[in-house]
Amino acid sequence: MYRNSPATKFKYLIPVFVLFIIAPGLSNILRSDDSVTFLSENTNEVQTRDSVNNKENRTREPAKQQSPDSLLDIQRNLKAEELVRGERLFYGLAYPKDQSVNCAVCHNTSVTDTLNWNPDASEISNKYLHKSARDLSNVLLKPVGLKMAQVHKNINLTPEDIVLVKAYMDKFVNIGLRPNKPVITNLFLFILASIFFLFSIIDITISKILKRRWVNYGVLLVTGLFITYTLVINALALGRSIDYSPVQPVKFSHAVHAGQNGTDCIYCHSSATYSKSAGIPPVNVCMNCHLMVRNGTRSGVSEISKIISSYENQKPIEWIKVHNLPDHVFFSHAQHVNAGKTDCVECHGNVKEMNVIKQVSDLSMGWCINCHRTRNIDFHDNLFYSQYKDLTEKMRKGEIKDVTEGMVGGTECMKCHY
Ligand code: HEC
Ligand code: HEC
Ligand code: HEC
Ligand code: HEC
Ligand code: HEC
Ligand code: HEC
Q1: 67 φ/ψ angles, rounded to the nearest 5 degrees
Q2: Rounded distance, CA 31 to CA 46, Å?
Q3: Could you tell me the distance, in angstroms and rounded to a whole number, from the CA of residue 248 to the centre of ligand 2?
């Protein structure tokens, strides 16, 4: 057996030999390394919260390097099983001290549709990539700030575990967030239908495998209908993006600002009344309030600090535009908001209740025209309309009661198309 071969026996001696040589020089590291391997049971008992929390303790007794706390400052290569434990700790699957905290419950590891106010796993991992395990330990065990103190309250990890969680988080930077839902179903069905369609055609004309021809005709009919339907629906939706709701770089919520705080839309979208575009507020506008408000009830400091760093570094926040009309269409907010007295809600839905902005109208030509055909305009009080002499005349005679936008040219191609 190979077990008895002299080479294998010798193998056991190598580590001892190596230890013997490097031990004196690296005594510090070695001692702490030992504590990792030996104390896995003991650390829990030896290591009270105090030894981590108590800064004075450390400064008064610098000699106390052996404390498990010092693990936080040591760079070492972790074994594969330690990395796995780091991952299990992050997902709350390992139970230190009979209680576990699932970081992933708050710090999403996959993309979500709904707004999660907590920073996601990718964000915190990136932020701490170049920080130390001690920094992570501080934010977990000695959280500062209203929100952080509240959410990280029950975390009770040992320094060793924190090193492992940190190692997993560093790895997570490369893994990134998992995409939420696979988008294959429709495409998959379409391809499948196309294959059956082709098969039936070939079978009818060339191969003639199926004896009963009506089966092939049936398949052709069903798949043909499905394919046409899919193509038509998708062609109509081409360039349309109703329900579009991209994840924005800062978790800005209209529900909080326009809803709860009751800030007027025009405070931020000030050009809506006099210009073509409603405009997105520059970060200075945010700073009017966020110079003072540094803590959000839902997101703590994590989101607002992005505004502040954008302001300080003079790097504008890169908002993703939600509503997009094609270039060949002319649309002006001023005409609608100011002259037409159309409420934002009619076109943008109940923004006051949206945490994440969503496009509620399809912005199709039919949508514009439908409103113009039916919407009454303020014909009397607008001097501009006095040039429509015949309409004024008809109204005076009582032939018409109201004037719609369509009657004053709201359905003429040139009004909307350059
Ligand atoms: C405190 C400032 C603020 C207030 C108040 C505010 N908004 Fe906004 N709004 C923003 C910011 C910032 C964005 C860009 C980020 C986003 O899309 O969420 C935005 C985006 C939008 C968009 C999407 C723009 C696009 O990209 O197509 C619409 C529509 C909108 N706001 C409508 C409203 C309406 C309606 C109100 C009033 C009920 C309102 N906003 C109040 C700041 C504000
Ligand atoms: C008649 C429908 C309509 C009304 C009313 C309306 N909007 Fe819009 N809004 C649009 C359309 C259409 C776009 C897309 C414009 C584009 O892509 O050129 C848009 C775009 C926006 C944008 C994105 C930035 C921009 O200007 O392109 C913001 C912000 C916005 N609207 C806010 C508002 C606010 C605030 C109000 C109310 C004061 C309002 N809108 C009223 C139809 C409307
Ligand atoms: C008129 C004052 C005002 C303006 C302008 C303003 N905010 Fe706020 N914002 C607040 C207040 C007040 C809160 C705290 C709300 C709370 O905690 O319930 C807040 C909270 C927030 C939060 C955290 C929400 C939470 O609960 O965690 C974010 C993110 C935010 N604002 C982003 C922005 C951005 C981006 C802008 C600029 C486009 C902006 N704010 C402009 C008043 C303002
Ligand atoms: C109950 C929800 C919750 C749980 C559980 C939780 N966190 Fe957090 N964490 C938060 C929130 C909220 C913030 C942002 C607070 C703020 O910025 O004020 C945060 C912030 C952080 C940050 C960034 C701190 C900074 O400097 O910006 C890190 C790192 C972090 N958490 C790691 C973890 C780890 C590791 C765990 C698991 C052991 C964990 N969190 C468990 C809610 C949670
Ligand atoms: C909710 C109703 C509504 C919708 C939707 C709407 N409009 Fe209008 N639009 C009006 C009203 C009302 C007026 C008249 C404003 C006034 O009194 O001058 C108007 C006027 C106009 C005018 C000026 C016409 C003129 O006589 O000079 C243009 C251009 C226009 N709209 C373009 C559009 C486009 C493009 C869209 C679609 C992207 C659109 N509108 C969607 C209500 C609407
Ligand atoms: C009230 C504004 C308005 C009027 C009036 C209007 N259009 Fe449009 N039109 C639009 C908008 C908005 C779109 C973009 C629709 C989209 O992207 O789906 C559009 C798109 C189109 C397109 C591109 C095909 C498409 O559906 O995307 C053509 C062609 C077109 N219009 C022709 C016309 C002609 C011809 C007239 C006159 C009979 C006319 N339009 C009048 C608003 C208008």
Answers
A1: -60, 145
A2: 16
A3: 18
